[in-house]
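Give me the fold.
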Amino acid sequence: MISIQNNQEEIVRMLLMYPEVKKKVAVLKRKHSKDASLNITAFEMANKSHPLDIRTRIRKMVTGSSEVE
């Protein structure tokens, strides 16, 4: 049986294949590294960053525009 933790780690690996997600995760890690009380996992950061990247990519393909609503 596959555990949820293993699935989460696999999702993180898949998300981190996108350069934009990698960059955002790095920025968020730098931004929050000084605050020990703020525990943001790579999965949470990638999960928050990823959907916007996909919407932006699709919008660029469909409309040729990079504006985000």
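The helical segments are 4-15, 19-32, 42-63.
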